[in-house]
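To: structure desk
From: M.T.
Subject: fold request, one chain
Message: Could you run this one when you get a chance? Sequence is below, nothing fancy, just the single chain.
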Amino acid sequence: MSDFRVDFAVALAAFGVDLTVTPPESGPVATQGVWDASPPVEERPYGTDLARREPRRILALPRTALPSSPPRGSVIEAPEAAGGPMKTWTVDGLDRAEWDCWRVIVKLAIS
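Reply: Done. Structure tokens follow.
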């Protein structure tokens, strides 16, 4: 490992939540994921500083369970915290790919 963070398997064991990822036109994949504790806030152009700003929700998913990044529109059923109620999230994009996980941007699905 070339960075200072702990192995993703250790993070999953400590902070992981059970979830299901369902890519469009594909079957569901049961796995675990880790919520980013400090998601970044989207930068806005000058003149829009009075608009509502919310942090992006980032969910790290193991590459061992998902060989390719879940595409935009994939549905994820996951609680916000271990033991919490299940919520439906939609993948809005890829934050970044790391050697052991996909970090996807998710939005709460409108029900």
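Reply (cont.): The chain has a mean pLDDT of 87. Let me know if you need anything else for the meeting.
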